[in-house]
């Protein structure tokens, strides 16, 4: 089987408050997108499509060189994933979908997700237990109830899929949005397997997340 990856990096990332799209913000002198692509390659993935804002396609291709093919994204994350999927080489039959914002997701996590798909699961997500107590609240801020956290998981990327299944899930989704790709597969009635996630796969969303990622990176360096 041949594994490929779609790295979505076409969001504006306005919550980060940077002067450029989030994936192009630098961490230790390297863009989040380059960090993400490097770790996918370390995890054994060779066919990588990076999906970026239309205006940045040319300069991103120059930045990434042979490490990834660069295409333009769409208005929503789902549109960007679909654009990346369409650009993957024909021989790719297992696809990892990854957020560039999870730029430190380690090679071991990439390999764990990919090998679970290759072994026996058509759809795989990495996830971590919920450690906080979870409350449901109403619009006025009053607590409605306490949710049992034991069966809950915080799901990350890369998420892995048999390519044909993911293509079918995206085609069936149409305009109805989902916050991750696994949700589209679940709608088809296909069971999604959860494998252990990694705290390093945190999603950089705010300036505080960026500072935390920078600190983690210095701790990881030899
Ligand atoms: O905005 P959020 O952090 O949830 O986005 C998750 C990932 O999806 C980011 O890496 C972002 O660049 C990407 N994205 C995209 N196209 C969009 C919106 C988000 O590629 N239209």
From TrEMBL:
Site (Transition state stabilizer): 15, 22
Keyword Nucleus assigned: no
Pfam families: IspD
E.C. code: 2.7.7.60
Residues the record marks as site: Positions MEP for the nucleophilic attack: 149, 203
Molecular function as annotated in GO: 2-C-methyl-D-erythritol 4-phosphate cytidylyltransferase activity
Top-level enzyme category: transferase
Keyword tRNA processing: no
Keywords: Isoprene biosynthesis, Nucleotidyltransferase, Transferase
Catalytic activity annotation: 2-C-methyl-D-erythritol 4-phosphate + CTP + H(+) = 4-CDP-2-C-methyl-D-erythritol + diphosphate
PROSITE patterns assigned: ISPD (PS01295)
CDD domains registered for this protein in UniProt: CDP-ME_synthetase
Pathway membership, UniProt: Isoprenoid biosynthesis; isopentenyl diphosphate biosynthesis via DXP pathway; isopentenyl diphosphate from 1-deoxy-D-xylulose 5-phosphate: step 2/6
Matches recorded under InterPro entries: IspD, IspD/TarI, IspD/TarI_cytidylyltransf_bact, ISPD_synthase_CS, Nucleotide-diphossugar_trans
Role played: Catalyzes the formation of 4-diphosphocytidyl-2-C-methyl-D-erythritol from CTP and 2-C-methyl-D-erythritol 4-phosphate (MEP).
Family: Belongs to the IspD/TarI cytidylyltransferase family. IspD subfamily.
Name this polypeptide is given: 2-C-methyl-D-erythritol 4-phosphate cytidylyltransferase
Gene: ispD
